[in-house]
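Recall that a protein's primary structure is simply its ordered list of amino acids. Everything else, from secondary elements to tertiary packing, is in principle encoded there. The following example makes that idea concrete.
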Amino acid sequence: MQISQVKQDIDEWIINFLAVPNEKLNGWSPCPYAHAAINKQSYKTFIGYDLETDLNDISTHCLKPDEVVIIAYSKNQYSNPDAFFESIKEINDFLLTNRNLIALGDHPNTVEEVNGVNFNQGKYALVLVQNLNDLNTKSKKVAKAGFYNNWPENYLTDIFLHREDPRASAK
């Protein structure tokens, strides 16, 4: 994998998909803060080498609000999506959430679909790391505006596993 190609692919996913409003999501973009991330250039993309080592290294840094670190792995390196997500879960449980960070996974062999919209980047196994408090605050904001209203409960249960469920405070 070449970093220039990985960055281009991630940029295109963010610009052409995550930041674009979608009728199937009630006019919301898949990521309501993607447009701001583009404008502020608040995300950084890296090629990962070993999931545990990479996340341990990131855990020693304090990510600012709005900052997102995207680590891309070859889908062949982590060909088993269940093991990939289980590793991320364990690292969140035992390391990252204690340091106000959260890692969210995206694997091309696991479809992440909401209302017929496939959220996957599709080419790489990705880990997106961000400030946990900031993510919780922003989730509450969009929950109050109805962002999660039509999302499947099983999908929401998964994404709020290591986070505050913002729907409780939105009521």
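The chain has a mean pLDDT of 90. Helices lie at 3-18, 34-40, 51-59, 81-96, 132-144, 153-159, 166-170.
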